[in-house]
Write a structure and sequence with these properties.
single chain, about 350 residues, alpha+beta, 4 domains, 13-stranded mixed β-sheet, three-stranded mixed β-sheet, about 35% strand, globular
Length: about 350
Amino acid sequence: MLQIENGMQIATDAYYIQHMENGLDELHFEVSISDPAYRVLQEESRILETTEHQIYTVKQINAGTHDANIGCRLDLSAWQTRLYIEYKSLNRTAAAVLSAVAPADWTVKDATIQQKKREIEMDAPTPLEIAEQMQETFECAIRFDTHSKTATLLYPEEKPLSNAYAVDTVNLRSVPMFKGKSTDLYTRLYPIGKDGLRIASVNDGKDYVENLTYTDQIICAVWKDERYTDVESLRDDAQKRVDAASQPERSWTLDIVDLKRIDADRWPDMDLSLFSVLRLVDSYKGFSANVQVREDKVYPYYPEKNEITVSTSAKSVQRTLRGLYRQIYNPNSEFYQRLRAR
């Protein structure tokens, strides 16, 4: 059920929630322009979705002659009430960074208590912009709960394989929509940290890390990041980068029967929620792989319409593109700050 902040209900149950990797979840629905609720709906109206108890803010209204399409985003305005003129996190863990900027009445939880430390510098960011940047810096994800006022740190790459699966003879309704590319693939990476820091001293004399499991062809790349002063952290993170980059980027959009959300008692192991890792069998390509849910489109009252996007890569194509755009055009990005300093 959808309910406007003033208590008025919206006469529709055909809405869907888009769970996003960066935590900025979306709510989409249609409402008749003759519905009394439409008269009071406006940009920045707050709406409660009752199945997940999340509050959303109206961001787009596109009205026609009969109906209006309403687009909303998770209400994180509490994370935008402050501004840090010159922000520098110092060398801290993700949990420490997020806890330091979170609104006073919010709680930060770390699902795995990661001890990896990084430094973030930004020019005049809000806490929400810091939260977005740190997800890229720490390769983590944040799930915001506006009801409990909790921000939970997750590390998708650490999720284990579940018992869930997707196969055309069981729960796929149609042929998976497939995208694959290897234009950015490399197999050997030379990492360089602050002041020319190299990894040979902790890497058997080699200044590179590599992964030749997909192809034995040597394809070299270099990665420079002056935030790294610890040689072992530089080596370990470089290995993670080459492990991901040495495989083609593959993603599928699955029109799937969401068995657990339809009947949890019968299908308790078929979890298709965000970041779940499952086995995908694509019989049309003669291919199977462990894949991770990267976007989750949920119809609370019509789970038979649910869709998910899965990927074999550690970071989805959508998130990569958003991150690239942010790095180039957002004055709060680390890339932009470095460019400005030159």
